[in-house]
């Protein structure tokens, strides 16, 4: 068996390799219409009640990224997928796979952090599972969460509602989680002062739902960052999107890490941000509603939905130039110099 | 965007410089080569080729360290990793195929391959894994070579060694200038390399009548450098200009140069796709043998001619500006970013990879 026949890290990443894995190995075998959209959460209707349902696995290395440790991330990741689907997140499950010999107090810290995040997000952790595997059979602790939430009457979000002239809004500076992971891994040398943006986005999505029909679609730009989120949003649509690079908020330390690594901050994961498409008239009220919240103070309009090129994203740079955005095959790696 | 960066990306200044290059050209054609992967990164990320005037061609030379690293060096690294050593290297090296897979595929088979951001990260791994051999694949140009020298001279732990694959830019430019079929009007010199070695090593090359200027890595930097090269070419006054004065000194960085001279000696070296260039490599100096992974693990005997170029691959011509990526029969058919054959399709800074992305961006194919 050659290396090409094996599962690579990129198959679980945010690039095209991961997308082709979903198309070739997942979609061909699991044919539920609820899965077909491959959206943040599956939308289900059970006896007149609309539910959002999602799950996520967390194998983050290192497990103690400042501001985004494994426990907090596991809860926020699932809560946020529900929230951006338009749901009120309610219940979360938590399953643990722990390596034999892992520190009990370390595990306690992970669980404590998960509990605090759940409380902050207003969800209850209601079921779970614990498995311990032999030393060396897992790396520390892996977490899996699943969650359900209720989608209220009148909430109707989808990429099919996106129209030319709509605006793309982000709720705050992008790339914070990805930069914190890069810094914490130590691959770029000793770095301090970069914390993950990991947080529940429920307050932000609740504020945006107040826009009613002016809110078209929401997503959380996790793996692959804002650019991947934008590309996925308009993929297959009859409209495209422009992103005005100078308008995208990026914090100084994040820009510095990205400059060193040769990685675009717009392609780094956020774990506490919302990217929302709103009607032209909804942009002002959306910014106002978001900026009233501590977590939304950095909200900005960063792009616009355009007629051409259909299904594509165009990045407009400060230099007055523009280019079509093409997602990389695999997650970007820090470059040599 | 920070205030400082905003100035170096200003649309007004960038467009003004592009117009100035157009005026300098006033109808004539010009072909300039850059020799730095990060220049290519800036040019493609900010779509600068789209605003360069008609008749002005900016081509990508052998400035991507990932592209020019010989397959035999990758093979040796893979062999050491499969043999049980911790193999540390930069992120963009792990996907480069040698004759027998890449470090990434070796890792998928169980080898311990770690990504580090600098040689310091590799030394730290050696301290953390005192019971294992930690080998750093030390590839790159002068920019990173000075950091390897500092590590080599600072008494690293005894389980640490380096598999060196260090290449020097001035001898490569010299070789390019002597190569038949290479026709260029000037060179944009690499800002990082010149920060370390200064401009002096390039002055004898410019004195042979070739326009040159060093530039930094923001859009304004690159266009300023190109304008200087174009000006020299148009007026027939070749020189070695500095458009990166905020970092580059004529004499370079004395501390870095001294460390490199203390740690390394110059050797002839092979460049993937180009061949052997006299005096274009650095290897550890006598006295530092314990740090040399080839000696420590007896790899030298296994050295064989570089077999890393697949049949039909034109990377050698692309790297020397003699062919465009699209001239290659494999380009975008047998050789794609998803399944690269030649080195220029592998790295994000490789000319074929960038051309492919650009084609996708413009719907060019």
SSE series of chain B: HHEHEHHEHEHEHEHEHHEHEHEEHHH
| DSSP helical segment count of chain A | 9
Q: Name the chain pair whose interface involves the most residues.
A: A-B, 42 and 58 residues
What is the fold-level CATH name, i.e. the topology of the largest domain in chain B?
Answer: Rossmann fold
How large is the share of residues in beta strands of chain A? Answer: 15-25%
Coarse shape of chain B: globular
Please sum up the structure shown.
The complex is a heterodimer of chains A (337) and B (365). With 337 residues, chain A is of the alpha+beta class.
What does the model show?
The complex is a heterodimer of chains A (337) and B (365). Chain A has 337 residues and is an alpha+beta fold. Helices cover 28% and strands 24% of the residues of chain A. Chain A is globular and about 55 Å long. The two termini of chain A are 34 Å apart. The model of chain A has no long low-confidence stretch (mean pLDDT 91). Chain B is α/β, with parallel strands linked by helices and 365 residues long. Chain B has three domains: 3-62 and 178-188 and 205-243, HypD, alpha/beta domain 1 (Rossmann fold); 66-169 and 253-302, HypD, alpha/beta domain 2 (Rossmann fold, 3-Layer(aba) Sandwich); 315-362, no CATH class. Chain B is built from 16 helices and eleven strands. In chain B, the strands form two sheets. In chain B, strands 4-3-5-6-11-10 form a six-stranded mixed β-sheet, sandwiched between helices. A five-stranded parallel β-sheet of chain B has the order 2-1-7-8-9. In chain B, helix 2 packs parallel to helix 12. Chain B starts with a helix and ends with a helix. The model of chain B has no long low-confidence stretch (mean pLDDT 91). Classes of the chains: A alpha+beta (337), B alpha/beta (365). The interface between A and B is large, with 42 and 58 residues.
């Amino acid at each position: 068996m050659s290396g090409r026949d094996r599962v690579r890290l990129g198959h679980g990443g945010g690039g095209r390799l991961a997308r082709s894995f979903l198309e070739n190995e997942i979609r061909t075998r699991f044919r539920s219409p609820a899965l077909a959209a491959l959206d943040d959460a599956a939308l289900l209707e059970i006896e007149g009640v609309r539910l959002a349902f999602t799950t996520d696995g967390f194998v983050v290395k290192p497990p103690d990224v400042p501001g985004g440790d494994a426990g907090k991330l596991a809860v926020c990741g699932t809560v946020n997928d529900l929230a951006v689907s338009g749901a009120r997140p309610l219940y979360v499950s938590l399953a643990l796979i722990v390596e034999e010999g892992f520190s009990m107090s370390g595990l306690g810290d992970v669980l404590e952090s998960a509990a605090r995040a759940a409380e902050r997000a207003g969800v209850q952790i209601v079921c779970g599972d614990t498995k311990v595997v032999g030393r060396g059979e897992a790396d520390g602790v892996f977490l899996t969460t699943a969650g359900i939430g209720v989608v209220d009457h009148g909430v109707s979000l989808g990429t099919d509602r996106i129209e030319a002239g709509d605006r793309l809004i982000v709720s705050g500076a992008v790339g914070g989680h990805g930069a914190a992971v890069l810094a914490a891994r130590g691959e770029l040398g000793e770095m301090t002062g970069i914390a993950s943006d990991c947080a529940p986005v429920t307050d932000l999505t609740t504020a945006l739902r107040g826009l009613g029909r002016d809110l078209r679609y929401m997503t959380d730009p996790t793996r692959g960052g804002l650019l991947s989120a934008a590309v996925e949003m308009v993929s297959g649509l009859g409209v495209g999107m422009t992103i005005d690079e100078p308008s995208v908020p990026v914090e100084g330390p994040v820009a510095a890490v990205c400059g060193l690594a040769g990685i675009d901050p717009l392609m780094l994961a956020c774990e506490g941000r919302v990217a929302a498409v709103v009607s032209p008239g909804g942009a002002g009220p959306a910014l106002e509603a978001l900026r009233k919240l501590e977590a939304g103070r950095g909200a900005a309009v960063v792009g616009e939905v355009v007629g051409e090129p259909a299904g594509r994203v165009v990045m407009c740079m400060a230099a007055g130039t523009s280019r079509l955005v093409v997602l990389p095959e695999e997650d970007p790696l820090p470059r040599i110099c | 965007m920070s205030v400082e960066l905003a100035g170096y990306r200003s649309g007004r200044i960038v467009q003004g410089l592009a117009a100035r290059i157009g005026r300098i050209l006033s109808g004539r054609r010009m072909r300039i080569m850059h020799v730095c992967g990060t220049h290519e990164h800036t040019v493609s990320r900010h779509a600068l080729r789209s605003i360069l005037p008609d008749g002005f061609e900016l081509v990508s030379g052998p400035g991507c360290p990932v592209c020019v690293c010989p397959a035999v060096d990758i093979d040796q690294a893979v062999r050491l990793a499969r043999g049980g050593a911790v193999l540390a290297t930069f992120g963009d090296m792990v996907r480069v195929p040698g004759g027998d897979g890449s470090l990434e595929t070796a890792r998928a088979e169980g080898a311990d391959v770690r990504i580090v951001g600098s040689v310091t990260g590799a030394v730290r791994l050696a301290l953390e894994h005192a019971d294992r051999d930690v080998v750093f694949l030390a590839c790159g140009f002068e920019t990173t070579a000075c950091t390897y020298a500092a590590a080599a001279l600072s008494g690293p732990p005894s389980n640490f060694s380096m598999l060196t694959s260090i290449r020097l830019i001035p001898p490569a430019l010299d070789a390019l200038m002597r190569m038949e079929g290479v026709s260029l009007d000037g060179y944009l010199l690499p800002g990082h390399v010149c920060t370390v070695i200064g401009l002096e090593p390039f002055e004898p090359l410019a004195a042979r009548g070739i326009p040159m200027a060093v530039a930094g890595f923001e859009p304004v930097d690159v266009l300023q450098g190109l304008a200087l090269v174009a000006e020299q070419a148009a007026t027939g006054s070749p020189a070695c200009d500095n458009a990166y004065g905020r970092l580059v000194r004529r004499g370079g960085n004395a501390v870095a140069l001294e460390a490199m001279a203390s740690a390394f000696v110059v050797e002839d070296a092979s460049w993937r796709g180009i061949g052997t260039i006299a005096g274009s490599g650095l290897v550890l100096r006598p006295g530092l043998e314990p740090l040399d992974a080839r000696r420590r693990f007896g790899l030298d005997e296994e050295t064989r001619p570089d077999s890393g170029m697949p049949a039909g691959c034109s990377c050698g011509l692309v790297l020397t500006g003699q062919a465009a990526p699209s001239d290659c029969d494999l380009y975008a058919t047998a050789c794609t970013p998803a399944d690269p054959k030649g080195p220029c399709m592998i790295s994000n800074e490789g000319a074929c990879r960038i051309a492919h992305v650009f084609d996708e961006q413009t719907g060019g194919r």
